[in-house]
Every structure is written in C-alpha cells, then in structure tokens.
Write a structure and sequence with these properties.
It contains 3 helices and 5 strands. The protein is α/β, with parallel strands linked by helices and 107 residues long. This is Anti-sigma factor antagonist.
Length: 107
C-alpha cells in the first residue's frame, strides 16, 4: 500500500488491509489534523481492501467529522462499491458522484 498526496487529497494505491492499516491510519490522521475543508481520498488505484482497511477509512471519516472536515471518497472501484452497499456504509460516507446501484453487477 502506498499513499501519496497532502492534507487536501490523498491517492491510495495497492492493498489497504491488516498489514498496511497502521501506516494508512497514521497518514490519514495526519492529513485530517493538518488541513481544512474536504479531504478527498482517491481510491481509483486501490486494488483491494479488507475489513481492517474499511475500518481505517471509517476511523478517518469519524476523525474528520470531529475536526469539522469531511472525508470524500473518489474513484471507488466497483467491487468496493458493492461492499459499501452491502454494509450500508454508502449511506454514511461521502462518495463523489455517488454509487450507481443499478450499474453494479449482482453477486
């Protein structure tokens, strides 16, 4: 997993899982704490995430809210969109452009 960017926009590459969660949490919390306004998290280059990775994103979402900011997900890959819908987190998280439920393949 590799995260690049600043306090306004971060791009996540690779896998966001139990092995990369601690590093990702550190980077996301620093970005939230050191910026203002929306923090955009670009997931278009993310290969996969597990429950731990999703927990890191939810933690950053909560932290951003406490700091008066908003975490916005951009470029969420379709397989990850399905997970957000299945867990109903698409109703809580800000997702740029929303999720086109009708375009998601049925599983």
């Amino acid at each position: 997993m590799f995260i690049r960017g600043d306090h306004a926009e971060l791009v996540v590459e690779g896998r966001l899982d139990v092995r990369s969660a601690a590093d990702a949490r550190t980077v996301l919390h620093a970005a939230v704490d050191n910026g203002v306004g929306d923090l955009v998290l670009d997931l278009s280059e993310l290969d996969s995430w597990d429950a731990t990775g999703l927990g890191v994103i939810m933690g950053a979402h909560r932290r951003a809210g406490r700091c008066g900011r908003r975490l916005v997900l951009r470029g969420v890959p379709p397989q990850m969109q399905r997970l957000l819908v299945a867990t109903r987190l698409h109703r809580i998280l800000a997702i740029e452009g929303g999720i086109g439920l009708e375009s998601l393949p049925r599983v």
